[in-house]
Amino acid sequence: MVAGAVLGVGDTAGKLLLAQRDRPAAVAGLWELPGGKVEAGETDAQALHRELVEELGVQTEVGEPLTGQVILSAELVLVARWARIVDGEPVAHDHRALRWVDATELVRMADAGELVPADTGWVPELLAALTV
Ligand code: 9L3
Ligand code: MG
Q1: Which ligand is nearest to the CA of 24?
Q2: How far, in Å, is the centroid of ligand 1 from the Cα of 73?
Q3: Which band of pLDDT confidence, cut at 50, 70 and 90, is reported for residue 29?
Q4: Predicted pLDDT of residue 54
Q5: Is the CB of 2 under 6 A from ligand 1?
């Protein structure tokens, strides 16, 4: 699994794109870094690019990995990479909603338990990128 830490540019500079999960029930309503499964023959970066086209309808430039990985299950490991939108406006094709959040809002959401548990370990690194 690979998730994208999509940082804004222009109007959304200093913000991070979060997506609200619609399923499964255990995490529906919580917010995540968008992304999905790496398919056979894909690199993590290729998979993230494809997932962000499918889920958000945008072209992205995928960058470096964030630190660490999250073991989701015996066969699923989640990693995250930085990304930025190079073409298109994000639309929620696979999520309930999308929002751009600044550092203050990200802290509030993390403290309020509004993020998917799998992604919370990345909050300090995300905050560092939002508060430069
Ligand atoms: N997951 C956790 N954090 C994320 C993403 C993209 C995914 N940022 C977990 C939630 C699901 C599983 O990975 O249990 C599958 O995700 P998807 O393929 O439904 O996006
Ligand atoms: Mg997904």
Answers
A1: 1
A2: 11
A3: very high
A4: 98
A5: no
Helix and strand counts by DSSP (H, E) for the chain? 3, 8
The protein residues having their C-beta less than 5 angstroms from ligand 2 (an ion) are: 36
Long-range contacts of 91-95 (CB under 8 A, 24+ apart): 91/56, 91/57, 92/19, 92/20, 92/55, 92/56, 93/54, 93/55, 93/56, 93/57, 94/19, 94/22, 94/34, 94/54, 94/55, 95/19, 95/20, 95/21, 95/22, 95/34, 95/55
% of the chain exceeding 90 in pLDDT: 99
Query: What ipTM was estimated for this complex?
Result: 0.93
Q: Which domains does the chain have, with CATH numbers?
A: 2-130 (3.90.79.10)
- Substitution candidate for ligand 1 out of 1, 39, 126 with most atoms within 8 A of CB: 1
